[in-house]
Amino acid sequence: MSTIDKEAMRWLVRNADRSREPAERREFAAWFEADIRHQGAYARAAAIHNALSKATVQESLRPEHEDLKVEWANASWNRANSRRSFLRFGAMAAGVAVIGAAAVFSTLPDESLVVAAKGEFRKVQLADHSVASVNSGSGIEVRLTGGARDITLRHGEAWFDVAKDKTRPFTVAAGGVRARAVGTAFGVRRYANGAEVMVTEGTVEVWSNEATARKTLLQAGDMAFVPNQAGRITVARQPAEIERKLAWKEGKVIFINQTLNEAVADFNRYSLRKIVIMDPQLGGRTLVGQYPIDSPEVFAKDVSAFLEVPLVITADRIMIGSNGAAAKL
Question: Which residue has the higher pLDDT, 223 or 294?
Answer without folding.
Answer: 223
